[in-house]
Amino acid sequence: MSALKSNAVVVLSLVVVRLQSALYSIISDCDETYNYWEPLHYLLKGKGFQTWEYSPEFALRSYSYLWLHGLPAKVLQLVTDNGVLIFYFVRCLLAVTCALLEYRLYRILGRKCGGGVASLWLLFQLTSAGMFISSAALLPSSFSMYITLATMAAWLNEDTRTAIAVTAFSGLIGWPFAVIVAVPFVLELLFKKRKFLDFFKNAILYGAMYGVPIVLIDSLYFGTFTVAALNIIRYNVFTSHGPDLYGVEPIMFYVKNLFLNHNITLMLSLSYPLVVLTAACLGVRNTKNRLSPMQGLWLMSPLYLWLFVFAIQPHKEERFIFPVYPLFALGTALLMDQLFSHMRRILGAGRSSFPNRLMGFAVLAVALCLGVSRMLATSMYYRAPMSVLSDLPPTNEELSVCYGKEWYRFPGNFFLPPNYRARFVESSFTGMLPAYYDETQNGTQIVHDYFNDQNIGHPHMLFELSRCDYLVDFDKGAFYDELSAEPNYSVDRKTWSIASSVEFVQAEESASFARAYYVPLLSYRYLVWGRYNLLRRNKMKPIS
């Protein structure tokens, strides 16, 4: 009975924390909005933005992946058609899925690595700001993170078929690069266990089981034979512009982002190989862990392989590291377990108890404080784009809500009431914007001449400012300069009035620690705030 209660507490803790992520985390990447929420909105409601990746001539994204989320959303639509409710319903499903997969890995870690490792991993997962932003995101990289949890659990449990099945599923329907996580498992299966027949038999079986319906669904939507997973590999690996057209950043981009999201667990998990090599040289084995130090290092090898592969790519995005986020907590748990064993070996079981507890509490305290502080900062300082549209009144005529310099913060059509359309007006951004799908029966199959894979803007996507009924603008306190490419529309009171306004941090003007972490009574002294405004055109005709 006590074990049942303990497991119930673990499941409840994971579900509650992940649901907090679903309800309070922001959309941190416009790719999530335009490449996933918007096409999903089109599938569900017949209206939404299309990016060039969904054009049939490129076909880099999978409609099969969208329908994984669209099917339960369709069921909810039988009860309500409210876009905001559907948005958060899908997010909550993702959050619960993540929590259940985490629980599965927690149980197996307890059996294979000991209760100490499992408990530490669980605590670091619950306090991880990285898991807060990724666990409920509608992104293939978050889906791949779920698969990482399933793969690691199957690998530890020596469940070959499940590991191959989930890896095949992730590679075909989600993000094909996610199979990198399974490379050490495959090498072990082929060259250590010599299970060549098992591997190829299951790979072919599950590849066909998942691949055939995925290809059929995508081919139906694109109107031509389509293997989206191959298309995205071809574009990113075998074209001259694929890897370096968007988001080219130095290696410090990942260092900064990973520290913000994982703080002390980043440093400790990356230090794990050094501790393992030291333990191997000294012949130390964890007294409560069935894994030898070298087995633990092999288990962690997907993290180091992933970081190496993506660190050397010119295109760097925060979401690219999502698939291995749970491994930072695992590496830290294994390292601390190893250090505890060292202390027991040096000081003895009795004398090592206090320093081990002190070390454990210190690391957990740092992870908890920095993790929670980061979660609060992102949800409190940067939520305005997801809340400012809530004051749009109902209408029976079509009205336009325009975005200029704030185009990349549009949360999606799920947040717009019926009969509103988001539009883009000219700004300093000259790259390619998304365009609305053709709202016809074969809208996904039409090839448009305004899409390209070179990030070259096209006037088709732009809307005349004079036709905008509403405009979303970030007021940083500047004067109105009508000659500017991005004027501060909020102070042009002759044309606009403020319909809704929410505080929003001016990241560039605020102290870096203050905008990154929430510290009660301190952060606000070092933050510079602007107003995120929903502007209404003056002298609009009355809303019917």
UniProtKB/TrEMBL annotation:
Protein location: Endoplasmic reticulum membrane
InterPro entries according to UniProt: GPI_mannosylTrfase
GO CC annotations on file: endoplasmic reticulum membrane
Domain of life: Eukaryota
Membrane topology (UniProt): Multi-pass membrane protein
Major subcellular site: endoplasmic reticulum
Parts of the chain that traverse the membrane: 85-106, 118-143, 163-191, 203-233, 264-284, 296-314, 320-340, 361-382
GO biological process, one term: protein N-linked glycosylation
The protein's Enzyme Commission number: 2.4.1.-
Pathway terms, separated by semicolons: Protein modification; protein glycosylation
Signal peptide annotation: none
Molecular-function GO terms, alphabetical: alpha-1,2-mannosyltransferase activity
PANTHER family assigned: ALPHA-1,2-MANNOSYLTRANSFERASE ALG9, GLYCOSYLTRANSFERASE
Family designation: Belongs to the glycosyltransferase 22 family.
Protein name listed in UniProt: Mannosyltransferase
Higher taxonomy: Eukaryota, Metazoa, Ecdysozoa, Arthropoda, Hexapoda
